[in-house]
Amino acid sequence: MEELFTKEQIDQLKSNGSPEHYDQDHAPVVMLTLPFTNCVWLLSEINPEQPDIAFGLCDLGMGYPELGYVSIYELLGLEDPVLGMRVCNNTLFKGEYPMSAYANAARAAEQIVWDKAIVGKYVQKKSNILKP
């Protein structure tokens, strides 16, 4: 796993996946891509008890991005059959919005998008209504 993520990313992914943070709408921590394909994964958490399993927004480039779980070891084993490229970490990516915003933007665009102007439109506003 260390060959795919930085130490800081692993720590944040595990923290997000811990029981006390389980139901939160985390921002993606890491963007993985398979070069020269349309395959993209935005991952927000790893189950600390099953460190092979990550949760995030997965797009295999077929127009149906979806939230779900993915095996990190399977990602490590992916290889482009023509060029031999492997999944890599885009360390320049910074998740600035909750995963729900990226998921909604991806569904609308039929692919993962990370442009702030587009994803920002899908951030759900919190209600200012006071509870009784």
Structural class: alpha+beta
Distance between the termini: 47 Å
Rg, Å, rounded: 15 Å
Element-level helix/strand string: HEEEEHEHH
- Low-confidence runs: 127-132
Q: What does the largest sheet look like? A: 5 strands, antiparallel
DSSP E strands, number: 5
The overall pLDDT, averaged over residues, is: 90
Spatially, the strands of the biggest sheet line up as: 4-3-2-1-5
Helix percentage range: 10-25%
Total count of helical runs of at least 4 residues: 4
Shape: globular
Percent of residues in beta strands? 15-25%
Walk me through the structure.
The protein is α+β, with helices and mostly antiparallel strands and about 130 residues long. Helix content is about 25%, strand content about 25%. It is built from four helices and five strands; from the N terminus they run H-E-E-E-E-H-E-H-H. The chain has helices at about 5-15, 70-75, 100-110, 115-120, and strands at about 30-35, 40-45, 50-60, 65-70, 90. The protein has a five-stranded antiparallel beta sheet with strand order 4-3-2-1-5. The N and C termini lie far apart (about 45 Å).
Topology:
Layout: H1 7-17, E1 30-33, E2 40-47, E3 50-59, E4 66-71, H2 72-77, E5 88-89, H3 99-109, H4 116-119
Antiparallel strand pairs: 1-2, 1-5, 2-3, 3-4
Short précis:
This protein is of the alpha+beta class and 132 residues long. The chain is 24% helix and 23% strand.
Keywords, separated by commas or semicolons:
132 residues, alpha+beta, five-stranded antiparallel sheet, 23% strand
